[in-house]
Amino acid sequence: MASRHDFTLHIDTHRCTGCGWCVAACPLDLLSLSTVDRRKTSTLHNTKICTGCRQCEAKCLFGAIEVRFKRPVAGIHGEPYVQSRHAGC
């Protein structure tokens, strides 16, 4: 599992529908829904505790959540790649 210094959790507020699936998926209860510009959107409350488990990213049906790794992660054959659900799209 990545340390908190190796990644950032990005929430695209324009794609987020406020459905709450990511909130339910977070094993540490770090996400909640808040109102931004009169719309509900997901919000991460404590970046230091987030483990980067990517359960919220996997549960989001709209691709609004992405775990972005700050440095490349070695692939199967040692080639570098950035680990992201949207890589290669």
Could you explain how this protein is built, in words?
With 89 residues, this protein is mostly beta strands. It has one domain: Alpha-Beta Plaits, CATH 3.30.70. The chain has helices spanning 21-25, 55-59, and strands at residues 7-11, 31-36, 39-44, 65-69, 73-74, 80-81. The chain has a two-stranded antiparallel sheet. A hairpin with a 2-residue loop joins strand 2 and strand 3. The longest helix has 5 residues, at 21-25. It is globular, with a radius of gyration of 14 Å. The two termini are 24 Å apart. The model has no long low-confidence stretch (mean pLDDT 81).
Please compute the radius of gyration using only Cα atoms: 14 Å
Structural class: mainly beta
Annotation, overall tally of beta strands: 6
Percentage of residues assigned to helices: 10-25%
Question: What strand line-up does the widest sheet have?
Answer: 1-4
Helical run tally = 2
CATH topology: Alpha-Beta Plaits
Order of helices and strands: EHEEHEEE
- The total number of structural domains is 1
In terms of DSSP E residues, the strand content is 25-35%
Q: Largest beta sheet, briefly? A: 2 strands, antiparallel
- Whole-Å distance between the termini? 24 Å
> What general outline do the C-alpha atoms trace?
globular
CATH class: Alpha Beta
Arithmetic mean of pLDDT? 81
Could you say what the CATH architecture is?
2-Layer Sandwich
